[in-house]
Design brief:
single chain; alpha+beta; two-stranded antiparallel ribbon; two-stranded antiparallel sheet; 4 strands; 35% helix
């Protein structure tokens, strides 16, 4: 997996412990797992700090999990715009529009 920022490499190595295979090269860390599920579960705990380069099966599982989380939690709401051109508060009628 590729660490997004070299500053996070010590954290990734410390948390990964004996799963690390060999020495990291240019921010790429190789990890060993007995199966797909534990690999995806462990790597997903890093969020966007890392990107799985291979195997493709782990990438696919992470994409599936991400889609499920997006479906469950939705997309973040966009910030609401201020109402009116003159900074009127929502629900308040300006004096120019009162009957």
């Amino acid at each position: 997996m590729k660490v997004s920022d070299e500053a996070h490499l010590p954290l990734v190595l410390r948390v990964s412990g004996d799963r690390v295979v060999g020495r990291p090269r240019r921010g790429v860390v190789r990890l060993a797992f007995p199966a797909l599920e534990p690999a995806a579960a462990f790597v997903s705990s890093f969020g966007a700090l890392v990107e799985v380069l291979e195997p493709v099966e782990v990438r696919a599982e992470l994409a599936r999990r991400g889609a499920q989380l997006t479906q469950l939690y939705g997309r973040p709401e966009m910030p609401k715009k201020k109402a009116g051109r003159n900074g009127d508060r929502p629900g308040k009628v300006s004096s120019a529009t009162q009957a």
